[in-house]
Design brief:
Shape: globular
Strand order of the largest sheet: 8-7-9-1-10-14-5-15
Oligomer: single chain
CATH topology: Alkaline Phosphatase, subunit A
Number of helices: 12
Structural class: alpha/beta
Length: about 475
């Protein structure tokens, strides 16, 4: 009677199997696919395995609300009564003023919106922010941030990646590099863009010189959020697992022969992640399981708020499932004219969904663990050119902007920093955006000076060359 053959790594001789050969032989059967995958994961934790914080902090994850195009602080959260008297006066040049109607040059523009204070904190908000006013005491407003660029793509890169010229890792990539992610069956960094990508494109959530598995994973704004998530009819998970195992062996052999091709390892990890996502993503993306009350709180079902409301609710579900960093885009806020109509519509689209997100996180006990950031790439000027006599708008302003934070250990119910009487420049608690980045990392338990990656002959970091924590923003 011939001895049964069990495949092994050695010579193809027929002999009684050893214990190791017997276990290996079990791994060749499709029925043990899941077991083999679990054993491999336990033996070799993936690149997104959770890592301890470098410093104690409350926030464990982040939801980053990016208002692309530069929202006007003067028309949202930073009222300027002085502009009432200056309205349609020529913007100060060489110490003199003229009527804008007389000169046709640049002129001051008052805000078309009325402002009022809200909550015990007395936070200032313009009238279109009807829902956010209800959670005013959860917010920490920062009016002292400045950036370097007046161009959208370079300013977007600087706000998202710390570098005006692109190619560096996004803040979400740095956070997942430093902390990993709790859920190994979902990407650690998820992006919810508009149908049209922001200026600068996908480099706004790229991995730069970090390994490729730290880049953001965008979900499509319309149609299936992830294409080809489910296999074709007739292809079972066992088939996929067997194909991936074969591909992994071939790729692993190639990787040993070409160890400098680190992108291959990331691609292999992405294949494995995509396989695991099939069990998690459909449930996360399905909002039908939420209560009607919850859906209404986010504005889902209303034309103006449905799209962004779905993004905000999905962001809550993602962080609830252990995703480390979620970035949402809304835009564009580039209102060079008709600012009352443009900003009024944009605020109407995001106001209720954002307020609903904050309320929902708080009632679920997740707000303390979740850092929320609201910002654009720069602010707006108090002046603009004459456009049709009444089509008032504003230009780009890197010297003043309003950013607000919520949850995650920030100083809720406070307004930090100050801009001048017209909102043209920050004059109190003034900090470059690099300091904001250092502070966001610190709120998530990361130290910018320790969170480094060796590339091109030096250790690089998000702040480029270091920065300081804005202590006034931390509770």
């Amino acid at each position: 009677m011939r001895t049964p053959y069990f495949p092994c790594a050695g010579a193809r001789a027929l002999h009684a199997p050893t214990r190791r050969e017997f276990v290996y032989g079990l791994g060749a059967s499709l029925g043990s696919v899941a077991f083999s995958s679990m054993m491999a994961a336990e033996k070799s934790p993936g690149p997104l395995a959770p890592k301890p914080q470098q410093a104690h902090a409350k926030a464990k994850n982040c939801i980053f609300l990016m208002m692309e195009g530069g929202p006007s602080h003067i028309d949202c959260f930073d009222p300027k009564p002085a502009l009432e008297k200056l309205h349609l006066k020529e913007f100060i040049r060489e110490g003199r003023q003229k009527s804008a109607m007389e000169s046709g040059k640049r002129y001051y523009v008052r805000s078309p919106f009325k402002f009022s204070q809200h909550g015990q904190s007395g936070a200032w908000m313009s009238e279109p922010w009807r829902h956010l006013a209800g959670v005013a005491d959860e917010l920490c407003f920062f009016r002292g941030c400045q950036v370097d660029s007046v161009n959208h793509p370079t300013a977007m890169y600087q706000m998202n990646c710390g570098n005006r010229f692109g190619g560096d890792p996004a803040i979400g990539a740095w956070v997942t590099y430093g902390l990993g992610s709790v859920n190994q069956d979902l990407p650690g960094f998820v992006v919810l863009p508009e149908i049209s990508y922001p200026q600068g494109g996908s480099a706004n959530w790229g991995n730069g010189y970090l390994p490729a598995h730290f880049q953001g994973t965008p979900l499509r704004a319309k149609g299936s959020p992830i294409l080809d998530l489910q296999p074709p009819p007739g292809i079972t998970q066992e088939h996929q697992r067997a194909n991936l195992d074969l591909l992994a062996k071939i790729n692993d052999r190639h990787a040993r022969e070409h160890p400098w091709h680190d992108e291959l390892k990331a691609r292999m990890n992405n294949y494995e992640l995509a396989f695991r996502m099939q069990t998690q993503v459909p449930e996360v993306l399905d909002l039908a399981g939420e209560t009607e009350k919850t859906r209404e709180m986010y504005g889902i079902g209303r034309d103006a708020t449905d799209a962004f409301g779905r993004k905000c609710l999905l962001a809550r579900k993602l962080v609830e499932k252990g995703v480390r960093f979620v970035q949402l885009y809304a835009g564009t806020w580039d209102s060079h004219d008709y600012i009352e109509r443009a900003h009024g519509n944009l605020i109407g689209q995001v106001d209720q969904p954002i307020a609903g997100l904050i309320k929902d996180l708080k009632q679920r006990g997740l707000l303390d663990d979740t850092l929320i950031v609201w910002c654009g790439e720069f602010g707006r000027t108090p002046d603009n050119g004459v456009r049709g006599g009444t089509a008032y708008g504003r230009d780009h302003n890197p010297s003043a902007m309003t950013i607000w934070l919520a949850g995650g250990g920030v100083k809720a119910g406070h307004t930090i920093g100050l801009t001048d009487d017209t909102g043209m420049e920050a004059v109190e608690c003034v900090h470059h955006v690099r300091d904001l980045h250092v502070t966001l990392l610190r709120l998530l338990g990361l130290d910018d000076n320790k969170l480094t990656f060796y590339h091109a002959g030096r250790f690089k970091q998000l702040s480029q060359f270091g920065g300081q924590v804005i202590q006034e923003l931390i509770a």
